[in-house]
Amino acid sequence: MHVSTYADWEGVSRFYWGMVKDQLRVTDEIRAAAKEATRTAGADEASRIRAVYDYVVSNTRYVALEFGIHSFKAVSGRGPSSAAASATARTRRR
User: Fold this and answer.
1) What whole-number distance in Å separates Cα of residue 55 and Cα of residue 15?
2) Digit-coded pLDDT (tens) for 57-79
3) Is the dihedral of CA 20, 52, 92, 26 positive or negative?
4) Which stretches of the chain drop beneath a pLDDT of 50?
5) CA dist 67 to 24, 54, 55, 64, 72, Å?
6) Residues 6+ apart with CB under 8 A from 27
7) Which residues, 6+ apart, have CB-to-CB distance to 84 below 8 Å?
């Protein structure tokens, strides 16, 4: 049995993007975190990705209690994990 208010995955994608797009904007805090994370990394993409990953896992602690809308959308502005996670996403897109 399949029950959904969405006709297809494109609809789910539009719903989710509408919730999170503003949280993925690069802020000065994110730029600073990315710069710090990659300060000693090599010039190649793999080194930068590894450096950001190491920074995130060394400088954040994540405990998830997801209720209501926050089971889909993170609470924005909750410390360095928000900046580091966004920095990771941006670094991987380069």
Assistant:
1) 31
2) 998 887 777 777 767 777 765 54
3) positive
4) 79-80, 83, 94
5) 21, 29, 28, 9, 9
6) 83, 86
7) 33, 37, 52, 55, 56, 59, 60
Return the half-sphere exposure (C-beta side, CA atoms, 13 A cut-off) of residue 22. 6
* C-alpha distance from residue 79 to each of 14, 45, 64 (Å): 27, 26, 14
Would you say the C-alpha torsion 14, 18, 22, 23 has a positive or negative sign? Answer: negative
CA distance 87 to 50: 12
In-domain check, residue 45: yes
Residue 40: which domain range? 9-93
Helix (H) or strand (E) holding 91: helix 80-93
**Look-up of token digits 């410390």:** 79
Is residue 14 assigned to a domain?
yes
If one counts the domains in the chain, the total is 1
